[in-house]
Batch of 2 targets.
Target 1
Amino acid sequence: MTEASVKDMPETTAKERAKQEGPLFKPLYLQVRERLTGRMIEGLWPPGMLLPSEQRLAAELGVSQGTVRKALDAMAADHLLVRRQGRGTFVAEPEEGRILFQFFRLRPDDGRAPFPESTAVSLRADRADAETAALLTLESRARIWRLKRLRRLDGVPLIVEEVVLPFARFRHLDREEPLPNNLYALYAGRFGATIARAEERLKAVAAGRAEATALGCPEGAPLLRIDRIAYGLDDRPVEQRVSLCLSEQHHYANSLR
């Protein structure tokens, strides 16, 4: 539904259509959320920006202030916005701790939550194979970046990983020296690609020679393999990542609701 139709449609009409069209109908606040998220995707609302008031947005979109508030609440719940008492609502900035612990789920068995430290081992341009092209919705043999990293917790090597990115979306990535620990902050701040969600698959595998050497474990030692596809605000895949993790004294922590 276009913005013009959102603006022109009274909220009572939306409720009536919801009854008529059933579960396929998208609630009005979600339509508003999509329009506002679109402004972030287009760069009209950059990280750190103070948003217009709810009243102003409601008047602009032709909906009630309550509908705008519900849309903003949904965006805040997804960490896209930050509400600051007495100051207003801001586009969220890629703050280190929030992003790391939103997407980094490996924890020591003693319950602590230390930040991982990362070292880039190599970065090179390559061509996507069929599987990577399909996962990142790229053309066959499209140019990509391949980044290999070693990650440590408490100074101990724990993870070897390969990150694959579309070359066209991350031009001049090789000029970012050194690459930061927090890649998702780099994606958002430098390339305008905010990671909104990720899908992961977990599997037990055996360490090969390269992983054993990097992690200081015996060849054949059990590792946790995490395959991740990270998506941007536009729900397009941004990153493919494979992480191989020692889990003898660590575990993968997740909260289900």
Target 2
Amino acid sequence: MSDFHQNGVITDFHNLTRRPVEALEQELSQFAKRRPMGLILPSLFSELEGPALSAIADELVKVPYLNEIVIGLDRADREQFLYAREFFSRLPQHTRILWNDGPRLRELDAELESHGLGALEPGKGRNVWYCAGYVLASGRSSVVGLHDCDILTYDRSLLARLMYPVAHPRF
């Protein structure tokens, strides 16, 4: 006798690995008309100097269904922030960089701390927290994905397969 028994409907998992990325993107573009899609990229400045993030940006340029991209930039001074703005300027999507070490977010940190809400440790969790807050406040995206910026084998099919189950209106 098995330890698990299920009555009713058995979930059907769709095999997204055999479908061409173009087919997924075509459907995602249709879904995006009703539910705009965004992507959060938490990044250290050092990742802009490595091989992965440049290749990721080259792939994101080709993604037709993304409405916005929010980059959380950590461990960057002013010159590095300006470099990041230029680095990401090739992206055709509505793109925002949250400079987590910049004066505006430092000021926001202080205000949150004054209300007992700012006890977030620096790091990826805090970075994503700010990015998610921005995405919610902007109202530009109904479906949001997130992935790292150090994926050496990245191609846009990874993003399509990440977004599809969340974006599909019947899932």
